[in-house]
Amino acid sequence: MLLVRDFVAHMANEVVKRLVDGGQIETKASVAVVNRVRQRMMEELTVEDRLNEEVRQILIDHQDEMRRTSVSYQEMYK
Q1: Could you list the residue range(s) of the whole structural domain that residue 65 is in?
Q2: 27, 34, 36, 30: which is closest to 10 by C-alpha?
Q3: Could you read off the pLDDT of 50-64 as tens digits, one per residue?
């Protein structure tokens, strides 16, 4: 993930603040809303990281086959 967790928390806080200030949402528990928005943002931002890790593991699992067939890492990663 390219964004720092603290920055994601700041963005979530700003999103909720602007929605409340703009009258688009009403809440008495803005801290809880900020936490939920931050959590969802973190989940979305880490999808690529999880996918890349899964691909790395698949490539590691197949590295012997790749060596036998002379297939490059880049070709398998496509």
Answers
A1: 47-78
A2: 34
A3: 998 998 898 888 888
